[in-house]
Amino acid sequence: MKTVRNVVCPFCGSLCDDIEVDIEDNRVVKVRKGCAISATKFTKYNEERIYKPRIDGREVSLEEAINEAVEILANAKYPALYGWSCTSTEAINIGIEIAELVGGVMDNTASVCHGPTILGEQDAGISTCTLGQVKNRAELIIYWGCNPAHAHPRHMARYSAASRGRFVKGRKERTVIVVDVRKTHTAKTADIFIQIKPNSDFELLTALRWAVKNGELEQEEIAGIPAEKIEELADMLISCRFGALFFGLGLTMSAGKARNIEAAVNLVRELNNYTKFVMVPMRGHFNVTGANEVMAWATGFPFAVDFSRGYPFYNPGDTTFVDVLTRGDCDAALIVASDPVSGFPAEAIRNLAKIPVITLDPHETLTTMISKVVIPTAVVGIEAEGSAYRMDAVPLRLKKLVEPPPGILSDEEVLKMILKKLKERVK
Amino acid sequence: MGEITLKPKVTFKVPIIAETITPDNFAGKPIEEIEKLEMWEGNRKTTLGDLFEAAGSSGEAPADTKIIIEGDVRKVRRIGYKMTDGQILIKGSVGMYLGEKMEGGKIIVEGDADSWVGAGMKGGQIEIKGNAGDYVGAPYRGDTKGMKKGTIIIHGNAGNEVGCWMRGGTIIVKGNAGLFPGIHMKKGTILVEGDCAGRCGAMMKGGKIAILGYVPSVLPSFTFEEIKKSFKVKGEKIKGPFYLFTGDLNENGAGKLYVSTEKNKHLQFYEKYLE
Amino acid sequence: MELLIKNGYVYDPINEINGEKMDIAVKDGKIVESVSSDAKVIDATNMLVMPGGVDIHSHIAGSKVNSGRILRPEDHYKDVKPRTAITRAEVGHTVPSTYTIGYRYARLGYTTVIEAASPPLKTRHTHEELNDIPLIDKSCYLVLDNNWIVLDYLSQGEIDKCAAFIGWIFKALKGYAIKIVNPGGVELWGWGKNVESLDDQVPPFDITPREIIRGLCKINKMLNLPHTIHLHTNNLGKPGNYRTTIETMDTVSDLADGKPNIHITHVQFCGYGGDSWITLRSGAPEIAKYVNNHNHVTIDLGQVVFGDATTMTGDGPFQFILQNLTGNKWKNADVEAEGSAGIVPYKYKRKNFVNAVQWTIGLELALLIKDPWRVFLTTDHPNAGTFMKYPRVITWLMSKVAREKVLNKINKRAKKRSTLPSIDREYTFYEIAIITRAATAKALNLANKGHLGVGADADIAIYNINPMEIDPSKEYKKVRRALKRAAYTIKGGEIIVKDGEIVKSFIGETFWVKPAIPEDLEKDMLREVSEKFKEYYTVSLENYIIGENELASSKPIAVKTNL
Ligand code: SF4
Question: The complex's ipTM?
Answer without folding.
Answer: 0.97
